[in-house]
Description:
Blueprint: H1 5-18, H2 20-25, H3 32-50, H4 57-70, H5 74-83, H6 91-105, H7 107-129
Amino acid sequence: MEDSEDLRAARAVRRAVLGDAYVDGTAAGPDTVAGEFQDYITTMAWGVWAREGALTSRDRSLLVMAMTAALGRMEEFRLHASSAHRAGVGDAEVDELLFQVAAYCGAPAGVAARRSINQVRAAREQKGAGR
Length: 131
């Protein structure tokens, strides 16, 4: 994929939200198709974050967490939940979000998201204790 302005903007937002360590760890290897796929996903998913508009990064982070929880995509939910602080989302907001998920998407989605949040916070605490 051509290194367009949109792709560069999407990459910058992805790196700002997910952090250098995560992004560098997911860099595509020498496989051309894998690289094209990564650029496509980055442009599509993170390009929407780079749009100018009425939604802030905080808003977008909350929306992504709600949607991934609703869809049962817990791996993506954990990724965004662990990075939410970079977008300005606090723990209390995530806790409240889970009530919304449970109410509108069902108890199984809310419970799975709560388990994921507990894992994210335990990992964060363990990481903080290991400093």
